[in-house]
Amino acid sequence: MRRSGTGSTWLGIVAAGAAVALLGAACGGTAAGGGAASTSATPSPAGTSATPSPAGTSATPSPAASGAPVADVVQAAPVQHVAVGDLSMGYRVVGPLAPAAAAGTAAGTQTPLLLIMGSSGTMDLWSPALVTALAQDRAVIVFDNRGIGETNDPAGAYRFSQLADDTAGLITALGYDKLDILGWSMGADVALDLAVRHPAVVRSLVSYAGDPGGRRALPPTKQALAVLMDTSGSAQKRGERLIELLFPAAYRTANPAYAAAFPIPTEQAKPAAINLQNEALGAWAGVWSGLTSITCPALFVTGTDDVIAPQQNAVMMAARVPGSWLERFAGAGHGLMYQDPQGLAEAVQTFFTVTATGVTSGG
Length: 363
Known about the structure:
This protein has a single domain (16-356), classed as Rossmann fold. The chain is built from 13 helices and 9 strands. It has helices at residues 16-27, 73-76, 99-102, 128-134, 161-173, 186-197, 222-228, 235-244, 249-254, 271-282, 312-320, 336-339, 341-356; strands at 44-45, 80-84, 87-94, 113-116, 140-143, 179-184, 202-208, 298-303, 325-329. Strands 1-9-8-7-6-4-5-3-2 form a 9-stranded mixed beta sheet, with helices on both faces.
């Protein structure tokens, strides 16, 4: 779901949809969502220079595979298409799900939230438990990036900046002036690029497991790189190893059914399209110099045990974006949204609620 290596050497984790499909088949059928009670701490606004939440107050993910299965609200939503430049972009809209909000009360008038998926992933890979929690009082829009799943790519190779341009075009094509944005992994990089180069369309920004790109980005750990580069064994075994990277070892040991939190994707990410995406990402110079220009409310979310996008990426970006928030989840990995979807949702909702009221201190 993101790159590895340094300079222009990049690797996607693999075709995420294919890996999850293989793992789902191995685990036998339907997937369960997280749904466990969250112990997340409230994210901390950091004034003009963001700093980490105090030690001991960062959120701790709760076991995600012990509750009843969560209906996959993403895959239940119909796929729609809209013309954006040279693309036919596929998207789904979920919510508002709360009865009062769905009936059109004030709770249902909140700014919609647009989710940007990571590399090689399709829109049906979002945690259904996370989307369910976020879509109670607002519409949540998910979509496929250029060339992935339900979105075509008639032009072939493209620059990484094109992904942010596509996202800005989608917001306009759907009839909105601006939306709240949440990106995961590579999607967080797209979200940051969007906020820097298309600030008018971003009301608030959440960067989850992202990095600044270019030379400033901290790469995956050596152990993670070894797994990413290991092509031995069957496709199923490779997929299982790659999925394991999303969860810390301690969490996997305590929650052996961790893979049940994954939805089984219904869309395809073709290898050729994934290669083009990785090439675009590999050539990206990054957004470090533009971070200081971000003026919208911004929240950086990271897991302290993320071996794919180490937490220091979020820490240093939050320190560079004026007035931003930083939330670190203790014991969480790159797959935080599968580990603790409720905790992540609560942190995001608190951020949106507080920043919408203009509060700049607390937490």
